[in-house]
Amino acid sequence: MSAVLDHHDAHGHDHDHHAPLGWRRWVYATNHKDIGTLYLLFAFTMLMVGGVLALLIRAELFQPGLQLVNPGLFNQLTTMHGLIMVFGAIMPAFVGFANWMIPLQIGAGDMAFARMNNFSFWLMIPAAIMLVASFFMPGGAPAAGWTLYAPLTLQMGPSMDAGIFAMHILGASSIMGSINIIVTILNMRAPGMTLMKMPMFCWTWLITAYLLIAVMPVLAGAITMTLTDRHFGTSFFNPAGGGDPVMYQHIFWFFGHPEVYIMILPAFGIVSQVVPAFSRKKLFGYASMVYATGSIAILSFVVWAHHMFTTGMPVTGQLFFMYSTMLIAVPTGVKIFNWIATMWKGSMTFETPMMWAVGFIFVFTIGGFTGLILSVAPIDIQMQDTYYVVAHFHYVLVAGSLFAMFAGIYYWLPKWTGVMYSETRGQIHFWWSMISFNVTFFPMHFLGLAGMPRRYADYPMQFADFNAIASVGGFAFGIAQVYFFLAVALPAMRGKGAKAPQKPWEGAEGLEWEVPSPAPFHTFENPPKLDASATRIVG
Question: For the stretch 524-535, what's the b/e string if a residue is b when 16 or more beta carbons lie within 10 angstroms of its beta carbon?
Fold first, then answer.
């Protein structure tokens, strides 16, 4: 996915004269573009692994009764699907975008800590292997749900320990990546690139990186306490020894709710780059977007217990978390309105990146509204652990994070590879994904409202029709992503397609469009001199 694969000379470029050759280039990679490419390829691989688990779940739920897997294995599938998608697919993919684009967007020569950058990527490989290998351990994979709630985690087999170790390693990787991003953005911007002139993608990642540093140690604490409960005789979460399982939930969600925003803020950043480019207008209300992003980050720390309305908290607590959750909808709404205002009266064109961005705004808004409904405690108590919640968070994470990623991939792919993707194939991928996604997850709202609990391998006959529809949609959605890889990503990585101009999108602004396509192995060896808007290089 990078300025890789040695097709550049065929296009008359000679940018790669510094690039090491062969496997050493990738194993010892310190170049931010190569590491970004590794992250993106790793994330796509894990997306496929997590997707296979999801399709096994949907295959089981295609009809009532037990078809393919027993309930124990079903719970292992739901647990590992969640863990792999969150920690193995979405988060690494956004770090891949950050590695590729932040130095290009701020005029930096590379990331601040190149070797730490390499280390933070390679840490993820053993963690991913441990997660996938847990299926083959005695007793199978962890089956406590991706939230790893006690006391279930205290009763799991040895794979639980492998899972905890994998989460620790992934957390360390995230913290190192975040330190790198913060130092790069704060210390390595080109002269003239003030903070309030940075692209929105850099802003959202700067705030995301601070969130990661704040909450990953909280997750580490929760799973370490779980580990000591399992093996060292402590009773943090074991009621038999005076422990409290609900305490685990408080600690986990104090990590888990900011984590949700960690997975969506970089998506907001990508959409904030794409929408102005294809509307041929400046982003409406740039400063308000920056402040809204900061507000979301701060508020994300005071809403955690809205995941816990059914744990028996006092009414005062319910009211606090209900209102704080409603409040966080305000800065999110600011962003939606700003994107729409950016498009308003713009001379819009609908190339594939813009289709994904507009599709993102539409479906993410649905996910946001269902979240607002769940913020109302009396309603949430009815909806808790039903398919309504599954529908809600997939609208946020698939229609949110993943659709924005595709917008970013199509937008920057010409810069990464030096070739233009096939517009027809991109549009096919978009419509195929958009329709099959809604066919999969929209019926789940009705299943949840009718009372179907999640994480059950079997269900009464009354839920059969919607489940069959959802399963068909799920398989269609999965095949669409394989189509994307084979028909769009692979040809671009191999350099097949029309040669990309330096600036393939007429309305695009930013320093990344000031370097050739594909981006040379070394960019901005001397800091560029910027014009007053900090979007172009002068001299």
Answer: beebbebeeebb
* Number of domains composing the chain: 1
Q: Is 134 a catalytic residue?
A: no
Active site residue 335: yes
**Catalytic entry in 173, 178, 370, 422:** 173
Is 257 one of the annotated active-site residues of the chain? yes
CB 356 within 8 A of CB 407: yes
Residue 38 lies in a domain: yes
Residue 220 lies in a domain: yes
pTM here is 0.95
Q: What residues make up the domain containing 365?
A: 9-514
Tell me if 523 is assigned to some domain: no
Catalytic residue among 8, 32, 168, 307: 307
Please indicate whether residue 454 is annotated as part of the active site.
yes
Rg (CA), the chain: 23
Whole-number Å distance between alpha carbons of 163 and 161: 5
Does 279 participate in catalysis according to the annotation? Answer: no
Instruction: Examine the residue annotation and report whether 332 is marked as an active-site residue of this protein.
Output: yes
In a domain, 349, yes or no: yes
Per-residue pLDDT, 9: 39
Please state the length of the chain.
Answer: 539
| CATH number where 502 lies | 1.20.210.10
Q: What digits encode the pLDDT tens for the residues 409-448?
A: 999 999 999 999 999 999 999 999 999 999 999 999 999 9
Q: Which of 33, 168, 230, 306 is catalytic?
A: 306
